[in-house]
Amino acid sequence: MPMSxxxxxxxxxxxxxLPVNRGRDPxxxxxxxxxxxxxxxxxxxxxxxxxxxxxxxxxxxxxAEFAQELRQYGHIYMYRFCPPISMRAYPIDQYPCRMRQxxxxxxxxxxxxxxxxxxxxQELVTYGGNGQVFSNWAQFWLVLHYLSEMSEEQTLVLYxxxxxxxxxxxxxxxxxxxxxxxVIPNYSSRDEYEKMFALGxxxxxxxxxxxxxxxxxxxxxxxxxxxxLNAGRRYLGSGDLRGKVFVTSGLGGMSGAQAxxxxxxxxxxxxAEVRELLLLKSARGEGGLFVVISNARLFNSPLxxxxxxxxxTLLHVCECVALAxxxxxCKIPLSLGYHGNVVDLWERLVKEYEATxxxxxxxxxxxxxxxxxxxxGYYPAQLALHQANRLMSADPIRFRSIVQDSLRRQxxxxxxxxxxxxxxxxxxxxxxxEAQRAGAEVNxxxxxxxxxxxxxxxxxxxxxxxxxxxxxxxxxxxSGDPHDLAETDDIATTVLEDISTSGGELHVRQQYNDxxxxxxxxxxxxxxxxxxxxxLYSDQKGRVSIALAINRAIAEGRVSAPVVISRDHHDVSGTxxxxxxxxxxxxxxxxxxxxxxxxxxxxxxxxxxxxALHNGGGVxxxxxxxxxxxxxxxxxxxxxxxARMMLNWDVSNGVARRCWSGNKNAYDTxxxxxxxxxxxxxxxxxxxxxxxLLDGALQG
Length: 700
Known about the structure:
single chain, seven-stranded mixed beta sheet, 18 strands, globular, Urocanate hydratase, urocanate hydratase activity, Urocanase-like, lyase, histidine metabolism
């Protein structure tokens, strides 16, 4: 079906005639086969549910191909309806809508599905292996159709990708309200999820996939850069990481940021990845790798030009370690990609240390997708890639056992290096949680449920930054014009410089200065993939000030079109996740989700253009509740009022909760905020001064 206009895309499901079924495109990567283990009755239910989107006259044509998809891929994606259009974030004025807020949402949706952005575009997966934008392509068509017809007195309601419809509302209401994965808690297990997703009843939206706010790798590049820098300050006593080696794994959707972040932070990054395509994509400039080592060849090495000229040179894990040692000695910021399993790399580093006494790795982590360990998120060392892909669907029980054995091996090697002085942290990908479930030695004696032998990066690094109110604030220039992005970069830099030079505590100014440095260099590091977007970490004052300054620039014509402001769900207030975002909450409430739910509700009635609430994201299904928003700045006074009201709440909510849990940074931050905002009144905790008092009372 030829298609050249967005108008056709917004006209509703193409049913007469049906588009040609072109199947899966072999030129793009595809999601692993899912294993829902449906009974015959459940298969019939899945098929019946999928056919609900189509009139009965088409059921005979579609039923057979949907059944084939279900049995071949474990899900009905409706490949026939994957639109033959260049999927990307078009300039906002090109969308055939009655209102710009709806067009802005379309801009964000199509960016999430842009093949340059999305991990598995034909399966509607943006990142994380299973982070869905929608469950099937029928939903995509219907959502765009509803948005094109929406008025300012309607709200689009979405249940796990399914557009329930347009409902009457008010101009001050959100234009879209999204929930993903809101499953009754007792049934929120991985096995139940696979069935419910196959039935078309629920969806794993990750964080910014299902809320339409993903901006490509830039967001995680920035967050990873800040994490590495602050890890150096905490563990190594310095933010100068020249000559320090950081060993990790993963170059996929989120983990793909590690290569570029290592170089920006100034260290030597050694990153293992089993999928050669991802390594080569990163080495070609999309991810920041300078060196790729595999069993066949090495590319782009600034250290070994003699080897780089010979594509047939045989290289292996020993060569990887040798190059890392040379980069460490020369203090060259470098990202080195190893095409192989990270377990082999860790075990080789142990052998090198035992043989030489030289501890190569200073810092270590892991970014494999262990929220999804048995469906392609983690590849065990015992199997080649093709073997693993086949076994995970052919014999899931055996594959699970092999994955857990691989995790035990990985932890044994990490433990030996940590005992020698390497600093390791969990990157919030459920690595330590899954290792614990596998029986690996990661337990911490006398610790609570959220504590392990190694800290999460939130517990030791990012948690205190969240408690200061700093988190991943972002914006998207819907014109698609790089000049608008450059203008907003200048605006944000000026705002942060003004705040930073006005005084404040040293550790707060340090966060401002890190982000001023980041945004000044962002253009040089070529961060934009997909939409014209930018991210930085800012606190409440900075976010509000940047949003209002951008809104004024739109009103004055210095920015040519509306700007969407948003944030990652991984933020101060947006996520309750006991093994990541709230892992440094120690009052027993880390497993409670009031903060994230209240944030979703509060953003909705304080001015957000759309809001989303998700089960799952980061550490996995059933392990986290998180939410996000999008707010369209159009230069109007009303947009400025909404931004001020909503952004103040969006940060203060989480800082107040962290204060109540006992975090001193949060206590000081919310106290200072109350002094600046007369209408803010927060219940402040009185902390027990004498712990012996508790023991005495309980013994008595």
